[in-house]
Amino acid sequence: MKNKLNPIIQTLALLIVPVLVILLFKFIMAITGKDTDISLISSTLKTSLFVIPNVLYIILHKYRLSYLSFIVAGIATFLVVYTSDSNQIDILSTFSLYLFNFIYFSLLIGVTYFSYFKVQGFKLKNILFILGGIITHTLSFSGIFLMNKQSVNIDLLKAITYTGINTFLMVGLAIAIGLLLFELPGQEVEIEAENDSDDDL
Question: Of 56, 76, 118, 183, which has the fewest CB atoms closer than 10 Å, so is most exposed?
Answer without folding.
Answer: 118
